[in-house]
Amino acid sequence: MKLNNKRKIAQVAAFAVSNLGIARILQTGFVCPFLYCDGCPFAAFGCPIGILQNFIKDGQLPLFTVGSLGVYGTLFGRAFCGWACPFGTLHDLLSHSNRRRQIKTRNQWFAKYGILFLTIALAWLALDTVFCKFCPSGSLFAAIPYRLLNPSISVGKPFYVHMFTLALTLILALLISRFWCRYLCPMGAIAGVFNKVSIVNISLDEEKCKRCDVCLEACGMGITKLEDIGSSTDCILCGRCVEACALKALSFTIKK
User: Fold this and answer.
1) Least C-beta-crowded within 10 Å: which of 42, 73, 166, 250?
2) Has residue 179 got a pLDDT over 90?
3) CA distances from 197 to 44, 70, 77 (A)
4) Start-to-end Cα distance in the chain
């Protein structure tokens, strides 16, 4: 089976598992390894960013959450972004449907860490989950389903703010490949830190590589250096570079 098909199956399976909470007994409350709003009526897991904010505003240490994210990151790095995240999957679809018209931009790795810092700082200062009130993933997977399931409940400014941020993010995703994942996702910032140490990674065979840069052209995250594949905080280990390389110079590896 082609790697592209495996990734699609993984993405569909991840979305299905994320919504197992349709049966209340399966609403586990465990920490999700990617950004998925636990405000979704069917969510089976807790959003890691939402959980972190709640602990911070309550003045408690999020030991279980941090530990869970550490385990996810050490095992898979940022692979969940490329293989499982539903919002990332949507970005995939939008990016590749409009690839010829997209604007090429430079990666600014610090942007998503700025968002992560603001998320933590605002939770501490405002004693509220401020990020959740603007999160476009929450808009799509929580605000809209909740509204559809409860049409009699009137909506106010928070709902329209969510719709605005979602619309803006999707428009930018059409113009800039994986816009949210590259520049704004705080969960991507956390997971990206682990790329250098994760057990599952992508390695380059220097002897096979001819420096044709076909792998970099296929990258939806805008990586521009061969040495950044698998190690950069921007790499989501999606494997598009592995697929593109006819010389098989790139491959998924498992560190011992």
Assistant:
1) 42
2) yes
3) 28, 11, 7
4) 26
